[in-house]
Amino acid sequence: MKLKDQVAIITGAGRNIGEETAKLFAAEGAKIAVVDNHRGRADQVADEIGRLNGEAASFVADISSEDDVEGLVKTVMAKWGRIDVLINNAAITDNKHILDITKAEWDRVLAVTLTGTFLMSQHVGRQMVAQGTGGRIVNVGSTSGFFGRKRAVAYTTAKSGIANLTRSMAVQLAPHNIRVNCVVPNKIGSPVGKDEIDPKRSVVNLRGRAGLPIDLARAILFLVSEDSDFIVGNMLFVDGGLAAMMTADSTSG
Prior knowledge:
Helix content is 42%, strand content 15%. The protein is built from 7 helices and 7 strands. The chain has helices at 16-27, 39-51, 66-80, 103-131, 154-173, 213-224, 242-245; strands spanning 7-11, 31-36, 55-60, 85-88, 135-140, 178-185, 235-238. The chain is globular. The model has no long low-confidence stretch (mean pLDDT 94).
């Protein structure tokens, strides 16, 4: 097992990419903090992991709230006594044009998608430093952070911020043996913030199929395992080859 007895916090773990990552990590021996802003989703994933003989607990938190984040870290520590892995997966989108989005909508998308990733990384990072045993952090970016889009402006801005936040975190946390990387998906599973996959959603890539949550979960597992020990501050594109095609209108991951 690649993560035996390690403790992993996964945000947005109640569905899609986060859910699949939680299940995969649990199968690899990790104890999973299933974090979501919806109690029912978090409980369902934690319960399913338990039925499969894994160890998990559900936690409800608004990651844009520093009080919630601080409380989450303290609760996880009280339960398991350490944190080895953080997956910053939670995000929301706007699907708005620059001329139509309101400031409140803009603020909320950046608060959850970018500031939430910062807050989780800061508070978990401090705990990892205090432990003195290092750790791994993976941020979930998006191809939308590397291309312009006809729809969505706050989300593309937030995800572009995730890329350089990852690089800065990697540089600043490396002296503490904390490796930070980023995965960059495109249209994996259901659209951001939704439970159901849209069968009419267009997919353009070099693999000729839609991405599945397990595709990204496996990439994330690689980045938190010893297999990737020499990879730091990297953007791993898990997009079926879309970025190589440079088709900006197709990016909405």
